[in-house]
Design brief:
Blueprint: E1 2-4, H1 12-23, H2 33-36, H3 42-60, E2 67-71, H4 77-81, E3 88-93, H5 96-105, E4 111-115, H6 121-127, E5 133-139, H7 150-159, E6 161-174, E7 179-186, E8 191-197, H8 200-210, E9 217-223, E10 236-244
Length: 245
């Protein structure tokens, strides 16, 4: 179903099943398609990945003091993008299958990958030795969280931040209105798909409570891709936020 404007929940177990199946499609020839989709368009996957890194990495100011928390790390696409010499990287994902792939792909000494949900991030970190971070990545995760869990997830992530931190959020947004795909069969993915595409106005309210009221400010935001060829959806588009405290 395509549900416009109405707030409705998606099923987390169905989402976990979906990504477990996606993990089975992993290939070294086109690895990032597991979470970027476009299984039959390797060139588009590579170009989107290149453009995203090109735009966002300079804004993260990654130096040797960078301690990165990557929420919903998938197979480690952003771990691959991390420069040598950063202080620490911790990727978290609720899909065991994706975490297992990430661990095989990136075995750098100061990198680790943990299994756990975004709205249980405090428990996941505590269970694995704790830690606070000064670079936070949330790349395509909020679309898989229902409204009732989203505030808790964002609050827990803020509490995992050091006093000075940069938060990078990249999400597909509903361009004019909220759109929920609920058990929507995708010919492209050959599977049912569930996701919530919120508007900028909706995200603004969530971010104000979780981050802006706690000392963060929005440094930069905007549409990720300018090229029409990289925006192949009419109702949604990739959007990014850089928050800093």
């Amino acid at each position: 179903m395509r549900i416009m404007e109405e707030i409705t929940d998606i099923d987390y177990q169905e989402t976990k099943r979906f990504f477990g199946k996606r993990a089975g499609k992993y290939s070294k020839d086109n690895p990032y398609s597991v979470t970027m989709y476009q299984d039959n368009n390797k060139d588009l996957v590579q170009e989107r990945n290149r453009k995203e890194r090109e735009k966002l990495i300079p804004l993260l100011k990654l130096g040797e003091d960078a301690k990165v928390l990557d929420v919903a790390c998938g197979i480690g696409r952003w771990a691959d993008a991390m420069p040598e010499g950063i202080g620490e990287y911790c990727g978290v994902d609720f899909s065991r299958e994706l975490v297992e792939i990430a661990r095989r792909r990136n075995a750098r000494e100061n990198f680790r990958f943990l299994e756990g949900a975004a709205d249980e991030i405090e428990e996941v970190l505590e269970r694995n030795g704790g830690g606070v971070y000064n670079r936070i990545l949330m790349i395509g995760i909020l679309m898989y969280l229902n409204d009732r869990e989203l505030p808790s997830a964002l609050t827990q992530i803020e509490r995992a931040c050091q006093e000075h931190a940069i938060v990078c959020i990249r999400e597909p947004i509903g361009i004019t209105e909220r759109l929920t795909l609920k058990d929507f069969y995708s010919d492209e993915l050959e599977d049912n798909y569930n996701a919530i595409y919120r508007t900028r106005q909706e995200f603004g309210k969530f971010f104000e409570k979780a981050f802006l009221d706690r000392g963060f400010r929005t440094i930069r935001e905007g549409f990720l891709f300018e090229e029409d060829a990289l925006n192949n959806r009419k109702d949604t588009a990739q959007y990014f936020y850089i928050l800093e405290r």
